[in-house]
Specification:
This protein is mainly β. It contains two helices and six strands; from the N terminus they run E-E-H-E-E-E-H-E. Helix content is about 15%, strand content about 50%. The chain is globular.
């Protein structure tokens, strides 16, 4: 029998690999940037899918079915939780 166990990782969005989905936990930004991010739907609790992350330069993410390009500096201000499913074999 197999079960799925989720392993959580807390990190910043710039460190999340392409194809992964993360949940925004907090935003470490000043008032102006925070307002811009909130207006784009980048809010605590939102699910974000990383579409492009080459390790430098601009990242492309999907939030609420909308693709958004953000700088690596902004991505470093977004604290996220990444859940990775892991299959665990259970012996009877």
């Amino acid at each position: 029998m197999f079960s799925v166990k989720y392993e959580e990782t807390i990190t910043t969005l710039d460190k999340v690999s392409e194809g992964k989905i993360a949940t925004i936990i907090s935003i470490n930004a000043g008032r102006g940037l925070l307002s811009r991010l909130l207006n784009m739907g980048i809010v605590p609790g939102a699910k974000v899918k990383v579409l492009v992350n080459s390790g430098r330069g601009v990242m492309v993410i999907s939030v609420h079915d909308t693709e958004i390009s953000i700088s690596r500096g902004i991505a470093q201000k977004l604290v996220v939780r990444v859940e990775s499913p892991r299959l665990k074999s259970e012996l009877p």
